[in-house]
Amino acid sequence: MTNKTDAEQILKLLDDKVTPLDTLFASLGESLSGHEGFGTNAITKGRAAFKNARVWLSRELCPKINEPEIRILVTSQQSSDMVAAVGVIAALLESSPSGFALNGTLVAVIIVRMGIRNLCPDLPQ
Q1: Between the CA of residue 8 and those of 25, 46, 82, 84, 90, what are the distances in Å?
Q2: Which of 29, 58, 99, 121 could be bridged to 45 by S-S, CB 3.0 to 4.6 A?
């Protein structure tokens, strides 16, 4: 996050009353030109792409998120921490040596919205 506007935009994406989860998946699907194997409906395409990446996401993110200072941040329910968690997860995705083809910010928002423990069930409480 570089400024207040970015944080405000992320807060809107995190709020299910403002941005339904299907809207996030549709945005993810719309960003995948040339991936018709995932379908033509943007929501279906986005959901399929996320589901397809889930194992990779779990393998790449969970060990890093298990570090105590990151785990505290990404499991918090405070809105400012959730915005920061999106930034941390997006940065981890974008810095991955094996690369990540999906929109890191959208995927990070989806992960935070769904709950990090749904991706990394072995995180300590």
Answers
A1: 20, 23, 12, 12, 16
A2: 29
Q: What average pLDDT score do residues 24-41 get? A: 79
Q: How confident is the model at residue 111 (pLDDT cuts 50, 70, 90)?
A: very high
CA-nearest of 78, 5, 82 to 90 is 82
Beta-carbon contacts of 71 under 8 Å, excluding residues fewer than 6 positions away, are: 65, 123, 124
pLDDT in tens, 45-99: 899 889 988 988 998 898 888 888 888 887 787 888 888 889 888 888 888 776 6
C-alpha atoms less than 13 angstroms from C-alpha of 19 in its C-beta half-sphere: 17
Instruction: Please state the pTM of the whole predicted model.
Output: 0.85
Q: What is the DSSP letter of 19?
A: S
Residue 64, judged by CB atoms within 10 A of its CB (0-12, 13-18, 19+), counts as: middle
